[in-house]
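sry for the spam today, last one i promise. struct tokens for design, 480 residues
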């Protein structure tokens, strides 16, 4: 069951996109503005609306910690906004001054891709907001973009109807011609990575003007080549499908259409679960909340609807019903999560309604560092937690912990991906990512030399000091 819990009526023109962070919802519109809402009660923030674009705003996306919001527009710019103050942090002009139709941030916050109406792509270094590389597909308009969960490749879609996979050097790794007749409207990677033997697999959803929603398997072979295979073609909507979105656990897939409907599928089995009918015109945008069983949908009727999944099938808890803002415990709340003892972890489990896991965690000596590094695979294979819903709920609570620890003004690139704490001795591992030295050394010693970011084997355990990043962190600390 699903229910409509509220309708936001603030935009004065078509709603083009919506995006969730852990605590906020952002919407953008043809009225040239973005509006920002608190997800605890969907009240609009004091600094909303954001007015900085000269024309229609087509797309927006949050940085993983929610500290920044990026938006792109027909005015040929991509703007980075602070979600602390609502102020503009940077304005990036697209090469050639073509209208920017799509923007996407990598999960590691290192890169931003923007795609334009003339078929050009721009890859930006997000921390510095500097242009790294450009690419192009001739005679088309870029309409879709999504980064893989490992942040090392990204997919684009265009009005030509093709899907193209790119690496960070802007090399085309694969081109799927005629993926959607008449054009691709959206594409999105599933959040999980599947690996077995010599193959690493991603899942991708795409939709288009052909009224189809498609699910693809993208296999990275041992030789470095990529192979793309169509798994499912979903035909639950009768008109062009304009947007699609995975839930954060990858279990659900939503899409919205010109036929005024929103469909929600069981992503693994490609089974239609719900059809939502409330909008009066084309539904242009949909997204899942990362912290609660909510879906936001935007439409050309100028409204944004917020839907609740009543059965909680994503395994999340609704912050509107039970907010954890300000929750404290006399013991572990005073410590960084990475410094929690096994006892602190047990206290936290009880507070979060997960007391049934305490004995299992104690038996496996799970402290704060181990808690932050838990994955869906370790919960199933090492802790033997059989319930998919319980695993999802636990991972959601861990993500909330990480979110609370990082959304405090610290730039995301200064945080260790393992501990989510400010790095003191950053080092570069063989996967190209920077980590706190002690954290990655511990990880390598206990995780069979796998990358914390990609789950792929590390070719070497050699760690290189990242002096540039250490100096940048030092400059930031002295400025605070």
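last one done:
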């Amino acid at each position: 069951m699903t229910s409509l819990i509220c309708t936001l009526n603030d935009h004065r023109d078509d709603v083009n996109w919506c995006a969730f962070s852990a605590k906020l919802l952002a919407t953008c519109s043809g009225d040239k503005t973005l509006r920002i809402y608190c997800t605890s009660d969907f009240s609009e923030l004091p600094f909303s609306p954001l007015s900085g674009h000269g024309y229609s705003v087509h797309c927006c996306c949050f940085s993983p910690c929610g500290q920044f919001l990026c938006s792109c527009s027909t005015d040929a710019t991509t703007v980075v906004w602070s979600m602390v103050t609502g102020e503009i942090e940077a304005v990036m002009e697209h090469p050639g001054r073509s209208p920017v139709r799509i923007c996407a941030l990598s999960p590691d916050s290192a890169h931003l891709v923007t795609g334009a109406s003339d078929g050009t792509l721009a890859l930006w270094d997000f921390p510095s907001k500097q242009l790294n590389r450009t690419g192009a597909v001739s005679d088309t308009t870029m309409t879709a973009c999504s980064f893989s969960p490992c942040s090392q490749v990204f997919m684009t879609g265009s009005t030509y109807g093709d899907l193209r996979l790119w690496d960070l050097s802007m090399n085309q790794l694969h081109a799927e011609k005629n993926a959607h007749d008449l054009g691709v409207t959206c594409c999105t990677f599933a959040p999980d990575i599947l690996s077995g033997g010599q193959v690493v697999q991603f899942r991708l959803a795409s939709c288009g003007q052909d009224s189809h929603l498609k699910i693809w398997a993208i296999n990275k072979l041992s030789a470095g080549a990529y192979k793309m295979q169509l798994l499912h073609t979903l035909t639950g909507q009768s008109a062009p499908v304009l947007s699609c979105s995975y839930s954060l656990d990858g279990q659900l897939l939503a899409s919205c259409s010109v036929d005024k409907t929103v469909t929600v599928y069981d992503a693994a089995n490609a089974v239609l679960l719900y059809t939502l009918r409330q909008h009066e015109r084309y539904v242009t945008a949909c997204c899942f909340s990362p912290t609660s069983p909510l879906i936001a949908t935007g439409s050309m009727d100028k409204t944004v609807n917020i839907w609740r999944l009543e059965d909680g099938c994503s395994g999340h808890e609704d912050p509107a019903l039970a907010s954890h803002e300000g929750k404290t415990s006399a013991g572990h709340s005073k410590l960084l999560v990475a410094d929690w003892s096994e006892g602190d972890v047990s206290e936290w489990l009880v507070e979060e309604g997960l007391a049934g896991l305490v004995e299992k965690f104690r038996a496996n000596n799970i402290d704060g560092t181990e808690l932050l590094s838990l994955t869906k695979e370790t919960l199933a294979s090492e802790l033997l937690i059989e319930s998919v819903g319980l695993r999802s709920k636990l991972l959601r609570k861990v993500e909330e912990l990480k979110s609370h620890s990082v959304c405090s003004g610290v730039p995301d690139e200064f945080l260790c991906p393992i501990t989510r704490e400010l790095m003191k001795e950053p080092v570069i591992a063989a996967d190209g990512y920077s980590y706190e030295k002690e954290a990655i050394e511990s990880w390598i010693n206990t995780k069979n030399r796998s990358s914390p970011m990609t789950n792929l084997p590390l070719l070497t355990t050699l760690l290189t000091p990242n002096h540039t990043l250490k100096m940048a962190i030092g400059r930031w600390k002295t400025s605070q």
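The mean pLDDT is 86. ok im logging off now
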